[in-house]
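Weekly modeling sync, notes
Attendees: S.R. (lead), two postdocs, one rotation student

Agenda item 3: backlog of single-chain predictions. S.R. asked that every request posted to the team notebook include the full sequence so nobody has to chase files. The rotation student volunteered to paste the first one in as an example of the format we agreed on. Action items at the bottom.

Example entry:
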Amino acid sequence: MTETPLDHAHAAMEAAPEDDAARLRFFERLADAELFVLLDKEPEDDKISPDVFETQGQQFVLVFDTDERLANFVGRPAPYAALSGRMIAQMLAPSGIGLGVNLEVAPSSIMIPNEALDWLVQTLAHAPDEVESRIDTLTPPAGLPEELITALDAKLSTATGLARWAYLVGITYDSGARSHMLGFVGAVPEARDALAKAVSEALTFSGIEAGRLDVGFFEASDPIAAQMARVGLRFDLPEPQTTTDYVPVAPGSDPEKPPKLR
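Predicted structure, as returned to the notebook:
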């Protein structure tokens, strides 16, 4: 069976149990992954009923990072809902229920207690501050940890269709303050907050203490976009696939309308 990004992150965490950064990267992959939740019956409208089992005095919901793994575990047709890891954590954290991930069917098999889900939800809730500053000069990025570059690349690879590309640059403001900035070009206006939060999460989960990374949004016609292209490190965001097929709306497919637990 093909290994998944969650398998790789779990293996890195297991190989270095004292490495906080490896543990953070695993939880970031878990939050970003599409997970298949095993249900005890078919969804009804916007409500789902996860199959809950109890062990050692705590309840757990079972999730798998591929539908094939869910099928291998159950061994028969079974109802499920596909949701993001962050959405599942937000649903389960207040309920006291933990998460059983890929149990018995993958190298990333792990049981995550509710306390860890609660921590994950609190960590994901951190939002970046919004400020306005005038840019003076741009320079090539320098001195940033490789862990952050890798985290940004992984995070932006999931931002399909939200922007055309992004440039990582060094920046000096007219106040004399220096920093680094990830400048998005051609971002969907409604996606700007989500993109800024994604960058903030990449910084948080890369394990860099007291780190800072500014975010800016520009159009391809803006003169600064050409400046960033000359000196910056470019990240290409995936383009959405076009399809004319009708796809019914499944529970959890709209992040503004998460499914409700029964």
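Discussion: group reviewed the output briefly. The first strand starts at residue 34 and ends at 38.
Action items: rotation student to repeat for the remaining queue; S.R. to check formatting next week.
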